[in-house]
Design brief:
Elements: H1 2-21, E1 26-31, E2 38-47, E3 50-58, E4 84-92, E5 95-103, E6 108-118, E7 121-127, E8 134-142
Antiparallel strand pairs: 1-2, 1-8, 2-3, 3-4, 4-5, 5-6, 6-7, 7-8
Signal peptide: 1-21
Keywords: Signal
InterPro entries: DUF2147 (IPR019223)
Length: 144
């Protein structure tokens, strides 16, 4: 009986560790679609059961202080560093969806869904209308 209890405790902690490792929250490195060069670090976090992502670091030399010139509304001319670019995604099984993603380069907002390919690779899909009309990026996890 003691062995069974000990085994259950080990499985419980292993499950907790696996669940934490499989979270989309954390810091992610983004890449330029055209050049493949590292572009920024986005921190994805959960707030009130919704998912958000904020640019916390600009990796492109000379663009560290760039503002979102083409953005509309309250984000217009705000620094890209610190800008919330993913907003309001809700969990649906293994996917977060129903929110938006902002492309600071063109100032446009797109519908968005994200999911983990593996613990260190995030699939980010931005689209107009329905998911077939859009583009997919793969971001890699970065440790703090």
């Amino acid at each position: 009986m003691k062995k069974l209890v000990a085994y259950c405790i080990v499985l419980l902690f292993a499950g907790i560790q696996t669940g934490q490792a499989q979270s989309v929250t954390g810091r992610w490195k983004t890449f330029d679609d055209e050049t493949g060069a590292a572009k920024s670090i986005v921190e994805i976090y959960e707030k009130n059961d919704k998912l958000y992502g904020k640019v916390v670091e600009i990796l492109e030399k000379g663009k560290e202080d760039k503002t979102c010139e083409k953005c509309k509304g309250s984000k217009k001319d705000k620094p890209i560093k610190g800008l919330v670019i993913i907003e309001g995604l809700s969990k649906n099984d293994d996917t977060w969806e129903g929110g938006t993603i902002l492309d600071p380069k063109n100032g446009k907002e797109y519908k968005c869904h994200i999911n983990l390919e593996n613990k260190d690779k995030l699939k980010v899909r931005g689209y107009i209308g329905f998911s077939l009309l859009g583009r997919t990026q793969y971001w890699t996890r970065v440790e703090k």
